[in-house]
Amino acid sequence: MEEFGGSPFDSLLTKIQRRAARVSVLGQGYIGLPISLLLAISGFEVVGYDVNERLVEGLNSGTTPYPGEPDLPELLRQGLSSGNYRPTADPDDISGADAFIIAVPTPRINGGEPNLAYLLDAIETVKRSIKGDAVVIVESTVPPGTTSGIVATSLLREIPHRVFIAHCPERAMPGQLIRELTEASRIVGGIDEESALLAKELYSSFSRGEIITTDATTSEVVKLVENTYRDVNIALANEVARICSVLGVSAREVIELANLHPRVNLLKPGIGVGGSCLTKDPLFLANASTERGYPPELVICARKLNEDMPRVAARQIISFLEETGGVEGAVVAILGTAYKGGVGDARESPVKDLVSVLKSAGVRVRAYDPRCEEYFGAEVAGSPYEAAEGARCIVLATDHPEFKSLDLARLRAACAEGGPVLLYDGRLMFERKRVEEVGFVYSGVGEPLLRPSELLEVRVGTRRGSLA
Ligand code: SAJ
After folding, report:
1. Which residue of 85, 271, 383, 408 is 20 to 30 Å from 188, comparing CA positions?
2. Does the model's pTM come out above 0.85?
C-alpha cells in the first residue's frame, strides 16, 4: 500500500487526488447509488452499503431499482465491470475507508419534524468503521445545524483519529439524476475549511459543475431554501389558478402571458406538489426557524396551499358528478399515479389524496400509470382506455410523456354514454379545443369553474363547457 505522508489533511487530499482513497457510501438510494457509481467509474474503490438485502442482491446482479432514470442501468454496468464498485449489506465491509458518504433518507414525521433515525444509525455505523483519519460527508438533506451539531459532536467525541466533516447536498432532479449530478454546480459546506476542501476534491472527480465551498450550516440552509423557493413559486401558480377559476379566465393563458414579462417566471399550477423533497424541505426550514423564534408564515402557507390542491380538484370533480347524474358508483379514471411526469416514483404523490377523497364520496376510482406500480387503493387498469371504460370523468393527474400521444377519440368512446363526460386536466397537458372536439367537457386546474346551468348546453366542439 502506497504511503501518504504529511498532515492528515495533506495525506487525505493526496489520496483523493490519486484516486487511492477508499470510499464507503451508506445508503444505495436515489442519490447514494449514482454517487457510488460515478466515484467508482472515476477510479475510486467504492463500497456501496445498504441495509436492504434485496436491493443489494439486485445491484450485484446488475438490476437497477429506480425506473425512470434512463442512464442508471448503463452506469451500474460500468461500475460493476470496472471492479471498483461493490454493493454490500454487511456493515463490516465499509470498515477502514478514507471517505464515508452518508446518503440515507431523512423523511418527515408528523408536523414536518425530521426523522433523523436513519442518519443517526448511519453515524453509529461510520463510528465503528473509522480506522484512521477520514472525511465524513453528509449528503442527506438535514435541518440547519445538524452537521456541525449532532453529526460532528458524535464523530469528534469518541474517535481517536482526525475526522473531517462536510455537508454536500445534491441538486439532482429525479428523472435526470446522472446528468444533473455530473453537470450541475454544487455547494459543499465544511465544519471547517479543510473539511470543505477535501469534500470538494472528492466530488470534483466526477462533477463538471462549479463546486463552491462554504460552512456546513450555510449549505444546509441553501439546500432547504432551493426547494422552498420552488414550492412557494408553485404555490403562487396554484393560487393564481384558484383566483382565475373564480374570475372565469384561464390560468394557463394568464400565466403564459404574464411570463412574457422579462422578470416574471411563474411555474405551472397542478393537482398538487409531490415527491420527497418539496413536501418536506420547506417544513424543515420553517421548523428550524420557528424553534429559534421566527415562525415564517409564507413558507407554511405555501405548503398548505399546495397540499390542498388534490382536494380542490376532487371537489370540482365531485360537483360535476353531482350535477350530471350522481356521485355514488360513478366511475372516475385517473391517468397517472406517480408524483410527477416521466418517473415511476409515487412518494408523496398528490394522487393519494385525490383517490382517497373521491372514494370517500362514493366514487369508483380506476387508475392507470405506465411507469408506477402504486395505485393508492384505486382499481388497477392495464391501459388508459381500460381505465376509461364507463367513466364519467377522466383525470389527467401526472404529466407522463406517454399521455401526450393518447388517442382522445378512443378514450372518449370508452367512457360512459348518454351524458357529458369531463376530462379534468390536472397538469394542463391538453389543448381545450382538441379535447372538446372529441366530445369531452374540458376543465382543469385554473380553468373557469363549470356552471351547472351551462353544462346541459354543452355541445361537442361548439362552446366552452363550464361547471361550478
Ligand atoms: N410541480 C408543479 N409545477 C411545476 C413544477 C413541478 O406542480 O411547475 C410539481 C411536480 O408535479 C411534482 C412536484 O412539483 O409533484 C415536485 O417536482 P419537481 O420536479 O419540482 O421537483 P423534485 O422533487 O423532483 O426535485 C426537486 C428539485 N429541486 C429544485 O428544482 C429546487 C431537484 O433539483 C432537487 O435535487 C430535488 O428536489 C431534491 O432532491 O431535493
Report:
1. 85
2. yes
